[in-house]
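To: structure desk
From: M.T.
Subject: fold request, one chain
Message: Could you run this one when you get a chance? Sequence is below, nothing fancy, just the single chain.
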Amino acid sequence: MTEQVTSEASPQRRSWLVVLPLIVFLALAAVFWFRLGDGDPSRIPSALIGHPAPQTSLPPLQGLLSNGAQVPGLDPANFKDKVSVVSVWASWCVPCHDEAPLLIELAKDNRLQLIGINYKDAPDNAKHFLGRYGNPFSAVGVDANGRAAIEWGVYGVPETFIVGRDGTIAYKLVGPITLDNFDSVVKAEIDMAVNAASISRTAD
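Reply: Done. Structure tokens follow.
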């Protein structure tokens, strides 16, 4: 009789062992989702906000020219005394194509500079991309192996960082710049970074 009870209970225990990891995963996913508020990925926080931009040097995109001269790569010194918008992008990234015209629009703002980090891309494809939409960047660093993206805490392309005049990351947008967030979020954050830089300059 005892053997019969044991044999009947064993399949039930095995079933729970199979289902338990799924239950744990779903519970963790639910917690993560609600921590984001409405599930908007752009709300994912960055541990780098308020900290200096990574001291990452990247080589230039060879053959990318501006006025006949090679566009430089990423040099940490680029961030000194300038408000910068850093875009992590790739030609194979579909949303990057959608946000490209908006980056061109941002580049018209002479209060800041745009810097590109080209992520795991084929150089010819990257140059074709910028040839198609125009190059908004004063510097483009090539992150061929994705190491720089890790240092910047990138979840996936595209992502945009706003770096203040003091070289500190002021804001991070996960996902593309769109018409919906261009004025209300991106330009508003840029204005705050520029105003903070102006206040700092006056204090100096």
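Reply (cont.): The CA atoms of residues 81 and 166 lie 6 Å apart. Let me know if you need anything else for the meeting.
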